[in-house]
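Crash report, auto-generated. Payload:
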Amino acid sequence: MDETVAEYIRRIVLKIPKDEIKTMLQKWGFLSEAQLRTLNFHQIKDSISQEVVQLCVENSADIKQAAVLDIIYNHIYQNKRMWSVYQMKKSGEELEYFDITDFKKKFKGRLRSALKNVTITFKEYEDNAIWIRVAWGTLHKKPNQYKPSYVVYHSQTPYVFVSASMLKSTLPLLCQALIVASNYHDIREMELRSHSLNSLKDIVFKRYSQNFQTYSPKHLQGGNMEPKSEDLRVVQENRSEKERRHRLNWEVFGDGPQPKLEYAQYRLETMFKSDPKMNVLDKKEPFRCLVKFSSPHLLESLKSLAPAGMADARLSPLLTCIPHKARNYFKIKEKKVLHPENFVSP
Amino acid sequence: HLATSLPLPSERDHLRPRIDLIVFMIDIKSKYSLKNVETSLAHVDASFFLGKVCFLVTGVGRLNSCSVEMNAVCKLGETYCSPVLFCELELEGIRVSTAQRLLRMLQICAGHTPGVSALSFVSLMRSSDDN
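Recovered output after restart:
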């Protein structure tokens, strides 16, 4: 068996947490149950990985099987990677029947005709997600298995989730192969990035709990508002104000959990407005500035600002529009039109 | 009675009993809370400042997240002739003992302790300043 394949498998096994190794190998299905039973999972990981490689040698594993193991690892630990979202466009309104074999054939064909050396692996999951792993090489070099790109495509949607390889130059080729294979005619990158793949899916598939402007005026969030048990001897003087703030917050964020994003970035290209007497930046150039919000869970923290009394109930629409507009990277230019919708440009 | 700021909402005026003690809580982690207290002080009748006002600074257990200057708080206490108490709400022991102190002050302010009135606090403060 190829030494590089053995080493690659060994490295994957070393990444897996010790108590997960057995389950993952079972999911992989390349080693038989009998072989798995011979493995001692109580020794140090180094030794476990050596034993696994030994078994793989016995079964003559090649890079294709190793790549499948890699997909399985990255599917379970998907949140370790940074994902971007791409949207594909069709030229017409034809609803074509999606044929997975045809898709795979076209995808592989497109990549291989451009670059002879690529390793392409597919794995389908129950939620209609097709996971694609591509390891990139060049005309003369074998594919680098340690810097692959991962693509997740839900065939019934025009969205593709990409965790790109460090090799930036491979991105255009990847996009091209995707539109050719899926019969779309254009693809564009959305300004939406996160570590949580499921949250990105929630946002573009509109699966999170949204709140609509119309609501019943009598609907008060009695359950959510007072998590601590209230002592009846304590009188809240500003109860109506508190209730109003909670209601406004609920209107914006809704009841359910928010999608998990780590950043919101605003690139400002607006003019600096100051007292003309101050003589600051009298050049008529836009003041360039980057504002970045980061948090382990940005939207939840924004949601908890008003109830914690740290912000007025009405947060800036630039923050609250993030899930609806499906973007967390913004470019803000000068307001030319009165209509606020035109204020934020792609 | 808990309020987020002063003045108190007028719609509840008829439901309110006599106010014996006002405790202004300042969260040491929030500049906003200090500002809020400063603006609210303007709405307090002058008679309260004869011992019926006290400042309670919370969150002192986490001095590394301090946003409020100690000087500013002590100055506030001096300006308004009112005591400044420090506590950490997250520690049960300190929470309980602070509550007991406030309760004692309240008893005196409400006139339940014979021989001692709220004015005593003012004179007590005077003497500590002379140090």
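Post-recovery validation: The mean pLDDT of chain B is 86.
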